[in-house]
Amino acid sequence: MLGMKLPGNFFLVGMMGAGKTTVGRALAKVSGKVFYDTDHEIESRTGAKIPIIFEVEGEAGFRRREVAMIKELSAQKNIVLATGGGAVLNPANRAILRREGFVIYLRASVDELYLRTCHDKNRPLLQTENPRQRLREFYEIRDPLYCEVADLVIDTSRQSVHSLLQVLMKELELHADR
Ligand SMILES: Nc1ncnc2c1ncn2[C@@H]1O[C@H](COP(=O)(O)OP(=O)(O)O)[C@@H](O)[C@H]1O
Ligand SMILES: O=C(O)C1=C[C@@H](OP(=O)(O)O)[C@@H](O)[C@H](O)C1
Ligand SMILES: [Mg+2]
Fold it and tell me: Which pLDDT score is estimated for 116?
């Protein structure tokens, strides 16, 4: 399984805490692709962390940077790209992701997403009095959008990153054979 060559780009979508960044980095390693994370690229280009960008430019400013970054990165070949959870809200992003690569939706329950994100202060949209409720509201809106763009849906609840990777590689091999 290690080092398996699979063609094209893999794009990871899903809610905050789904594991896009973590699983994406590991997937790039085993599939021999270059890893990018839109949030990390935006941070390194601006020299500012996501919460600061939200504070200075608002969510709208961040979303403008996000769509520009997705356009730029998705033009590359043979990459794994972890998107931010809100990327699918923009129809332009959905069209690009569908067109330029194989889209993997990492799904998780709201309870699990909450447990994975509640100690992290770097997600400005969850810095509210009731982050679990916020996640629930986002899930309602976004789950259909993730499904709309996905070529593959993987349930990540109660699955370790290691076992997810094995499931993922098996599924990707099957898809590559088709
Ligand atoms: N399958 C998993 N099981 C348990 N914890 C996970 C899993 N995937 C990711 N995590 C943890 O959840 C947190 C959020 O993961 P991250 O990769 O940043 O998610 P995302 O990029 O989708 O917001 C991290 O602390 C990560 O280690
Ligand atoms: O869901 C969202 O709207 C966001 C998700 C974050 O990325 P992760 O999904 O990697 O946490 C980051 O892009 C920003 O805080 C907004
Ligand atoms: Mg991430």
Answer: 97
CA 135, CA 118: separation in Å to the nearest integer? 11
Query: Which ligand is nearest the CA of 59, by number?
Result: 2
Q: Give the residue numbers of the binding site for ATP.
A: 17-22, 123, 159
- Strand order, beta sheet including 10-13: 34-37, 79-82, 10-13, 102-107, 152-155
pLDDT tens readout for residues 47-57: 999 999 999 99
Query: How many whole angstroms from 4 Cα to the centroid of ligand 2?
Result: 29
Say if ligand 2 is within 6 A of residue 19 CB: no
Report all structural domains of the chain as residue ranges with CATH numbers, in order of start.
Answer: 10-161 (3.40.50.300)
- Taking only the tens place, the pLDDT of each residue in 20-72 is 999 999 999 999 999 999 999 999 999 999 999 999 999 999 999 999 999 99
